[in-house]
Each structure stands twice: as C-alpha cells, then as structure tokens.
Design a protein that fits this description.
Elements (H helix, E strand, L loop, with lengths): L2 E7 L7 H14 L4 E7 L11 H4 L3 E2 L5 E2 L2 H9 L8 E3 H13 L10 H19 L5 E6 L9 H13 L5 E8 L2 E2 L4 E2 L2 H12 L6 E6 L4 H11 L7 E5 L7 H7 L2 H8 L11 H11 L3 E9 L9 H14 L1 E9 L10 H7 L5 E4 L8 H13 L4 E4 L1 H13 L7 E2 L9 E5 L14 E9 L4 H6 L3 E8 L1 E3 L4 H6 L3 E5 L6 E5 L6 E4 L14 H23 L1
Parallel strand pairs: 1-6, 1-7, 2-5, 2-6, 7-10, 10-11, 12-13, 12-14, 14-15, 15-23, 16-17
Antiparallel strand pairs: 3-4, 8-9, 17-20, 18-19, 18-21, 21-22, 22-23
Helix pairs in contact: 1-3, 1-9, 4-5, 5-6, 12-18, 14-15
The structure holds glutamine (GLN).
Glutamine (GLN) binds next to strand 19.
Length: 549
Amino acid sequence: MAKYIFVTGGVVSALGKGIAAATLGNLLTARGLQVVLQKFDPYLNVDPGTMSPYQHGEVFVLDDGAECDLDLGHYERFTDVTLSQDNNLTAGKVYETILYNERKGKYLGRTVQVIPHVTDEIKRRIVLPAQKRPDIDVVITEIGGTVGDIESLPFLEAIRQLRLEQAVENTCSVHLTLVPYIDAAGEIKTKPTQHSVAELRSIGIQADFIICRSRQPIGDEARRKIALFCNLPPEYVFDGQDVRSIYEVPLNYHAQKMDDLVCKRLRLEPPHAADLAEWERMTRMILAPPDRVRIAIVGKYVELKDAYKSITESFVHAGIPNHVGVDQVWIDSESLEGRDVGEGKLDEIFKDCHGVLVPGGFGDRGIQGKINASRYAREREIPFFGICLGLQCAMIDIGRDLAGLAMANSSEFDPATPHAVIHLMEHQQYIEMMGGTMRLGAWPCAIKPGTLAHRCYGRADVSERHRHRYEVNNAYRPALAAAGVVFSGTSPDEQLVEIMELPSHPFFLAVQFHPELKSRPNRPHPLFREFVRAAVEHQERIRAQKAQG
Ligand code: GLN
C-alpha cells in the first residue's frame, strides 16, 4: 500500500518546489524506502517539447523518450532512479486523453466535465506508478504553478478527492511558501504564508507541512506564529532558507527532522535511519573544493541559466572526483561572430578558460560563433567538449577548415548547401507534427576500443539519451576521417555517428547525444568527469609555463 505526498507552492513561483520534492525523495530513499516522484503541470501544452527555452527552461529527456519538465532532472539526480513518461503529466495530456476517449464513445452518452472526468483522469495518473510497481512505498507528486492559479484548480480538486478517499495516514500535503524580508521594516513577514495556506484550505486541502523559503532563518517566533495561524505544530513548519548549493538542502531538512516527521505522519516504518554520509562528503567537496577550474560555455540562451540546467549540474558533479569547483563562464555565441572578432578578440574572451563546451540548441542564430569557438579550441589545444549541436558545429568547422569543403554546413542552417556534412535523417524528412517526433530517448552506442571515448567510459557499450533531428552525413565520413576525425562511437549498426574525436588534440570530443541528462552527483558522467580532468591538466600546464617565466 503506497503513501502519497503532494507538494504545492504558494505566494510566488520559482521557490524551488522541484528541489523540495526531490529532497523529500532523497531523504526517504536514504531511509531505505522505494520512492517515485512525479510532476503535474497545469499548462495546456501536451509536453514541454515544443516550448521555447525562454518559456520553459531545459527540456529534460528520459530513457523512454519522454520530453519532460526540468524538475524530473532534479528528481533523477536526487534519488538516483530512472523515471518514465508516467511521471510527468500536463493538463494538455489530460485533455488529450479525455478527448480521445470521448471520440471513441467511452463516456456512453454522458456529458464530459471537469468533475468527475478530468479529476478522475488526474487521480488515475497519481496512483498509476504505484499500481504498476507494488514495491513502491511513497509517491511524491509535485503540482506546478502556484495555489490560486485558475488552471491548477482541477489538479488540487483531484488531490482533495483522493485525500478524502484514502485513510488520513496515507496522504500528506507539503506546502512551500515565501517568507519575505522587508528591508524597510527590518523584519520577515508571515502574512503571505498565512494567506497562501488559507487559500489552499479554502480548496479543501489542509497543509500538513509548511516549508518557508526565505533569505535568512525564519526564527522561532515566526515559526510559532505560522504554526498557530496554519493549524500545525511548530516543528511541522520548516525553515527553508537560501543555501549555497542545492545539494545542501537535504542536509538542512534532515537536521530539522523532516524525514522523521513525514514518516510519523504517514505511519511509515522505514527500514533504517537516513544514511547521508556519502551525500555529506559530496556536499563538502562541492562547497569547499581545494582548487577551481574555468570552463567557457558558448551557448545561445545564456541569459537563462535554466535552459542548460543539467549541464550546470553535470559540472558540479564532475568537479567532485576531480577535487575542483567548476566556474562556468557563459559566453553568448553571437558575441563570437562578426567582422571585428579576430584572433585577438577571441584570446581576450577565452582568457583564463581551461576548457570550452558548446551545448545543444536549435536554429541558426549564433551558429557561426559556435563554429568559431570550436575552431579556436581546436587550434589552441584547449580541451573541447561538444554536445549535440556542439558536435554538428565541430563537424562544420573541420569540414570547412581541414577537409576542403569550403561550403560545409548543416542543412538545418542552409538547406541548399552543396556540402551538407550534417543533414536530416531519412526518417525525419516527411515529418509534419513537431511534438515528440525528434530522435528521442535512450539509444545504444558502440565505442571503438583504444579511443579517448573508450578511455573515458572504460567500456565499449553504452546507452545515452538523444533529442535532435539532424545527424552526421555518412557520405562525408571518409573526407572527415581523412582530415583526422575518428568516429569513436556509432550506433551498433555503424549507421549513425554518436561520438567524434581528434586524436591529434589533447582533448577534443563531441557527442550527438546529451550526456548531461544522465549525470548524477554520486555517479558523475564519465565524459564530463574526463573533460574536467583535461581542463585541470590544461590549467596545470599554463601554471607550469607561467612559473617558468
Ligand atoms: N538542432 C540540432 C538537431 O536538431 C541539434 C539539436 C540539439 O542540440 N539538441 O539535430
């Protein structure tokens, strides 16, 4: 019999509900319980796959190819499990299912309504993971948006009903709010929290736990006040003050006995106490590494850090075994193009950077800048790591500069190019629907022994997650290979290029997939780990040169 925890947010968005839900998952997992996390988003897109990164941040892709909210990335990283398409639901998907059923005549002539049909479908999805896996002890469901939004009402109503149908000890509600500090008054204010909890109560849900997000500790007095006005014992009101690293959050809530209190409330008997020794050791290294290294990330959505969330986290993980903190220097790829961008300007921009990463992306804006970054790193022997679009840009640079293909390009950017070193895959050519039609999810990759890629992974067969439409054009593989490229990873049938590298360079590696989607703090991705190691070595070389004079 699984228990259900619901995580909602109030007052404002962007309080870190995803991290709070992931933290609960982390602590309950650390106690030996089987936990699954899911995110329900009230918007009408069927999934975030068609949304701009400016709207939505990164699209996180799962093994089964589901294009998901980036919180699923936090869930996987904090609980070290692999999630599935069952674990992300949107209002769009709910309505898609209901309208499909309606057309099939499944409602037998009845009027189809928000209550009961929409709420029933939401309830079906809340319990689905535990139905599929009877070993699940706890299902944590995070509701996107803020309490009070019109579009989240059916989701909250479904929770209210489910709580009513279940025994009291089988469900609990965790509500995250903002406790602002008012500079002029010199104090924190609890009123927004009181209102938000009251709003939730007016929908029929009494919060069982409150997490107060704030700049500084809320203190005992405010805690008592919130508890009194919100019908709770003071210890059920948690202090969620800002921390330096999200990896500190589980330690912070554990210190406030969150896992104990939640288990008590749900009458859960976990197999053991929370084992957080490994997590603590990791967090210590993240917070106080003995050295630092600087990586330039040449992207298109650099003002919006959420667009590259998993890359940022992968660098945090990769720093741990290398005993460094990774400073990420975000460079707008458009600033690397234009007539005034000569060698001198690039020298200045990449000064003090020990590695260059070109991440994924879509569309032709800023492409030349990414190609320039790839060439600069190649010629200056700076460690280079290309991801998806980053691989495609590296192939264009090498095609143009080393393989004599002056017009080399991707047909994504120039459909008429005579040298389409990157082109649309056969099966992508006649696709009309945009949603869910890319090459998505986990694909096997075979790695050539004796290559850098093989040294990084330490094995010859891996599985990595994809999200793209274009591929290396096999017709140009011989020309690119003659220019020095080694295609060190391919699909097992060798038809699709997955990894390329330049053996003449200290570390030049690019991949068609997204390794950042599989990095975990306790298991940093081998390619990120080895790229950071190469950056550390590059920094050591520079230091040695400086020391010599
Ligand atoms: N736009 C490129 C493609 O569709 C790269 C996609 C990506 O980087 N995720 O193939």
